[in-house]
């Protein structure tokens, strides 16, 4: 087992979620997913913390597949596979579709959906952390996303929909954790991100996303080699 203890830095906002009871692995009445916003100046190309670090070996990268996508803010610079590869590219020029600094250019009513492989892990996955990391230009900084999860045999349910937030020209991240336990959802076989930007507020109708991380382990099973788990 590879265990990495991660200290989450709480800088600005902690948002309590609308709880969907039954998703919480520990079953406690007060357990709820929380969204913690962190904003950090760029430190290089790619960006590598110290506050915001993309996860490698997470579920999207190792057992996930893009099940569906709907829309893009700019399809010529959209490269979904770079969205979970463990690298936070910072170029404000934003790459062409095949470039490493391409990203997710999503706006209102766009979405991306990932299936987690349950061929071997038939009970799905226990999720401890979801990270949504943005880094782009000055005007498209706002993270605005509704995060949904699907339990094995079930349908998609909203996990948390944190407030629109982000600072221009910075790297911005929402980290979703359980405010009172190690897991935010259990028995999950799908994760979906619904982008809900509007033309108002801190965003211009779409946002440049650089990394989506879903960290967890197989439900009720043994860890495959290389699995990353963060203990909050
Ligand atoms: Ca990743």
What report would you give on this structure?
The protein has 232 residues and is mainly beta. The protein has a single domain (3-231), classed as Galactose-binding domain-like (Jelly Rolls, Sandwich), CATH 2.60.120. The protein contains 1 helix and 13 strands, in the order βββαββββββββββ. The protein has one helix at residues 59-62, and strands at residues 3-5, 13-16, 33-40, 64-70, 104-107, 110-116, 125-135, 145-151, 156-160, 171-178, 185-195, 206-218, 229-231. The strands form 2 sheets. Strands 2, 3, 4, 5, 6, 7, 8, 9, 10, 11 and 12 form an 11-stranded antiparallel sheet that branches. The protein has a two-stranded parallel sheet with strand order 1-13. A hairpin with a 4-residue loop joins β8 (145-151) and β9. 46% of the residues are buried. Residues 1-30 have low confidence and may be disordered. The protein binds calcium ion (CA).
């Amino acid at each position: 087992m590879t265990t990495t203890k991660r200290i989450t830095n709480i800088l600005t906002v902690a948002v309590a979620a609308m709880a969907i009871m039954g998703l919480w692995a520990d079953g406690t009445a007060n357990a709820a997913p929380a969204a913690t916003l962190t904003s950090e100046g760029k430190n290089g190309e790619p960006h590598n913390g110290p506050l915001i670090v993309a996860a490698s070996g997470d579920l999207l990268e190792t057992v996930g597949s893009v099940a569906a996508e709907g829309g893009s803010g700019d399809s010529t610079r959209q490269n979904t596979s770079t969205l979970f590869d463990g690298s936070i590219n910072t170029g404000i020029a934003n790459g062409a579709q095949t470039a490493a600094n391409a990203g997710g250019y999503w706006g209102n009513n766009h979405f991306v959906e990932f299936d987690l492989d349950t061929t071997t892990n038939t009970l799905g996955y226990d999720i401890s952390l979801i990270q949504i990391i943005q880094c782009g230009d000055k005007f498209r900084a706002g993270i605005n996303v509704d995060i949904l999860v699907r339990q094995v045999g079930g349908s998609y349910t909203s996990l948390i929909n944190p407030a629109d937030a982000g600072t221009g020209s910075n790297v911005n991240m929402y980290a979703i954790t359980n405010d009172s336990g190690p897991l935010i959802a259990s028995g999950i076989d799908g994760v979906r991100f619904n982008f809900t930007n509007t033309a108002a507020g801190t965003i211009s109708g779409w946002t440049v996303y650089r990394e989506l991380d879903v960290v967890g382990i197989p439900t009720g099973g043994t860890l495959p080699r290389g699995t990353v788990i963060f203990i909050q």
